[in-house]
Design a protein that fits this description.
single chain; 477 residues; Rossmann fold; UDP-N-acetylmuramoyl-L-alanine:D-glutamate ligase; seven-stranded mixed sheet; six-stranded mixed sheet; 15 helices; 23 strands; 33% helix
């Protein structure tokens, strides 16, 4: 197939991965069009800036009418029964999943750095893209979130590296394997291996095997940079036939702090030991030991690639974080509001632990939405109990997929609240997100830190909280 100038049609073009891909393809010189339900910022504005105006509403006639596209790219949110997906099959149009398209159009001739793991993918990919961009390496990158340092979450670049977030979720209804298996890794950062996505992986061993499949794709001259603090990451790393560098906070790793990490409101600071050279003091603005670990992973890859340590050091110090990853949105009436994507209990625990270090003398209020099919299940009960013990107050929104999870498998919210209260944590649930917001605003007092935690939009709760707190302070509450 000639890729010089194709007519490419994207089904579900407004997805968080599909919209950036559409923009990249447009920059590459293709004619890009597509369809979705009504779109809103930031994806609607992203496509508009690229000159792409999507059709609204799925209709098989969009594909049957002339001109028919040379290629159709199907997002992973599109079900088999979607009328346009069915039209693609009926008309026998060439089709690709999103990761297949990324690989075919952008990874050939590059050195892909794939960032994979249950937690930390977006932040670590953002750090890596910023470090390589700061070093003048002009990398390509494709990030599943928005970095505060970069103008966009995607770039074709002209340097050898293409840095990409490697998602373990399935690629599409016709391409059921993990997305990351398409990304032709030359280097992999593996941040963590914990059970997630119960709708796709029946047990932890199945998920472990998916990560082993990724590691086995590395060529003999490739590199695996793996978090050695995790026993399961070390087990997965045994599948590698290339060099392995272990990083982490524990002393048994190849790359780690020489000194204890100092935490404070301004972030983290530690000393790095350089074999055969001088030690470096590194600092990071974003809170949490998990982010120190993410920075160590990027340090290891950058050092392997020969980037100047002084440049990497400066870039890490300048990194401001990613949107929706412990993102401080503002302060109203003395109350700080932070938005976080955490939903898996380990991520919740690490995020709350990082906030506890960053704001040691302030009351920490966690507003949590069990959004994913995994977050609403009972097998994470004990893990959530431990995770939320880091907060002073826990406020739970309704289980998003309540009706899709069998009652026997559903998280027992009442029991969780009872155990948290017995452990000294003020805990409550709400019948709706509107009710949750009203309760949070009524409860909040100057000096508090409110953190919203959800893998979805949370119905705009973070920005709504800021507005309500501002309104309250204006009335001299």
């Amino acid at each position: 197939m000639n890729f010089s100038s194709l007519d490419i049609y994207c089904i579900a073009i407004g997805g968080t991965g599909m919209a950036p891909l559409a923009c990249l393809l447009q920059e590459q010189g293709h004619r890009v069009r597509g369809v979705d339900n009504p779109l809103y910022p930031p994806m609607s504005t992203l496509l508009e800036a690229a000159g792409i105006e999507p059709l609204v509403g799925y209709d098989s006639e969009h594909l049957a009418s002339s001109p028919r596209p040379d290629l159709v790219i199907v997002g992973n949110a599109v079900p088999r029964h979607n009328p346009e997906a069915q039209a693609v099959e009926t008309l026998q149009l060439p089709r690709l999943s999103m990761p297949q398209a990324v690989a075919r159009f952008f990874l050939s001739g590059r050195q892909p750095l794939v960032v994979a793991g249950t937690h930390g993918k977006t932040t670590t990919t953002s750090i890596a893209a910023w470090v390589y961009e700061s070093a003048g390496a002009n990398p390509g990158y494709f990030i599943g979130g928005v970095s505060r340092n970069l103008d966009r979450s995607f770039q074709i670049g002209s340097g050898p590296r293409f840095i990409i977030e490697g998602d373990e979720y399935n690629a599409s209804y016709f391409d059921r394997g993990p997305k990351f298996l398409h990304y032709q890794p030359q280097t992999v950062i593996l941040t963590s291996v914990e059970y997630d996505h119960a709708d796709l992986y029946p047990d932890h061993q199945t998920l472990m095997e998916a990560y082993r499949s990724l590691v086995r794709l590395l060529p003999p001259d490739g590199l695996l940079v793996a978090c050695g603090d995790s026993v399961d990451v070390r087990k997965v790393a045994e599948a590698a036939t290339c060099r392995v560098i272990f990083y982490g906070l524990e002393a048994t790793n190849d790359v780690g702090p020489r000194s204890a990490v100092e935490y404070g409101p301004q972030g983290s600071r530690w000393t790095m030991a350089q074999p055969g050279g001088e030690d470096f003091e590194l600092s990071l603005q974003v809170p949490g030991d998990h982010n120190v670990s993410n920075a160590l992973a990027v340090w290891a890859v950058a050092n392997h690639d020969g980037l100047a340590p002084s440049v990497v050091r400066r870039a890490l110090a300048e990194f401001e974080g990613s949107r929706r990853r412990l993102e401080e949105l503002g302060e109203r009436g003395g109350v700080t509001v932070i938005d976080d994507f955490a939903h898996h209990p380990t991520a919740v625990e690490k995020s709350l632990g990082g906030l506890r270090r960053a704001y040691p003398d302030r009351r920490l209020i966690a507003l949590f939405e069990p959004r994913s099919l995994t977050a609403g299940r009972s097998f994470f009960f004990d893990a959530y109990r431990r995770a939320f013990s880091e907060a002073d107050v826990v406020m739970l929104a309704p289980i998003f997929h309540h009706g899709r999870i069998d009652q026997r498998e559903r998280l027992d919210v009442a029991a969780l609240l009872s155990e948290l209260q017995a452990a000294g944590v003020t805990a409550m649930s709400s019948s709706s997100i509107d009710h949750l917001m009203a309760e949070a605003v009524a409860l909040a007092r100057p000096g508090d830190v409110l953190v919203t935690m959800s893998s979805g939009s949370f119905e705009g709760l973070p920005s709504r909280l800021l507005a309500a707190l501002e309104d309250r302070s204006g009335k001299n509450f």
